[in-house]
Design goal:
- This protein is α/β, with parallel strands linked by helices and about 290 residues long.
- The protein is built from 15 helices and seven strands.
- The C terminus is likely disordered.
């Protein structure tokens, strides 16, 4: 059961009431029932609300997002169509401490994701490994209604990165990734703090920002150091190693348990699509279901 503060927040920011929620869920399920390739996909409230809340109950935009999101495996197979070997690599990257969510929410109820670029070994991992892991973390957190309503904050620490790290991000892949964020990602990205970014990496940020909407561009802040972050963020939420209360190892273990608990729900997202019945038409670079 949602706490009252989240119910109030959903009503104020998303125009959500019990009536609008129930009507929208019924409309979305009716649309799904008319498309054979989606009829076996997840239709529980918690999953469908991810799309409704992301698009603030605008049904045309909700359906467009639903289509695009569930068809990512077809649209970007090199990233989203993978097996056990790639999954093992993804968890190896996770165990390095490169990216993980903090245990506690901030004062606005938002989930916080910590990324430490220096912990990524550019000789071992690829852009695909990064994208798959970040996607899994987002999918796992969005099983929480509180996160659907309040959104996510990302803290990206670029301390001590090298040109070898930068080479993991080909310009074409960065553009495609930003396009996924713009058109196919679910959840509310509330803020991204980029800390200690070297000059040679700012080019990628500028490329990404050109593709993003004005609203999302305003939610990216470049900070010179972690000291500057304390003017923007409650530092007690960070790992013990950054001045917080909870050791990083505990945070890593906690999310891994959570991901294992929710793995069945995550797997059902792609498995629910009948790929034999899916047809894609490419028109001006966009995918339309026929």
């Amino acid at each position: 059961m949602l706490e009252e503060k989240y119910i109030i927040k959903a009503q104020r920011e998303l125009n959500e009431t019990e009536e609008t929620k129930n009507n929208a869920l019924a409309q979305l399920r009716l649309w799904i029932s008319r498309h054979d390739f989606f009829k076996n996909c997840r239709q529980d409230d918690k999953f469908l609300l991810q799309f409704l809340r992301t698009k603030k109950y605008n049904m045309e935009r909700v359906i467009d997002l639903f289509e695009r999101y569930l068809l990512l495996k077809n649209t970007y197979p090199k990233w989203f169509d993978y097996g056990q070997t790639e999954e093992d690599r993804m968890w190896q990257l996770y165990d390095s401490g490169f990216v993980y969510p903090l245990i506690e929410r901030d004062e606005e109820g938002r989930r916080v994701i910590m990324i430490q670029a220096q912990k990524l070994d550019p000789k071992v991992f690829t852009f695909a490994d990064i994208l798959r892991l970040v996607t899994l973390i987002a999918q796992t957190l969005l099983e929480e209604e509180e996160t659907q309503i309040s959104g996510v904050v990302v803290i990206l620490d670029y301390s001590n990165i090298t040109l070898a790290h930068l080479r993991l991000f080909p310009l074409s892949d960065v553009v495609s990734f930003v396009e996924i964020i713009r058109t196919s990602s679910i959840g509310r990205q509330k803020m991204m703090y980029m800390v200690s970014m070297p000059n040679f990496a700012t080019m990628l940020v500028e490329v990404a920002k050109k593709v993003l909407s004005e609203k999302l561009r305003k939610r990216i802040k470049l900070l010179k150091s972690m000291d500057e972050l304390q003017n923007e963020f409650d530092m007690t939420l960070l790992p013990l190693e950054f001045g917080g209360k909870i050791p990083e190892s505990v945070m890593l273990d906690e999310f891994k348990k959570l991901a294992n608990e929710r793995s069945t729900y995550i797997k059902e997202i792609v498995d629910g699509v009948d790929w034999d019945k899916v047809a894609l038409e490419v028109d001006d670079g966009s995918c339309t279901i026929t």
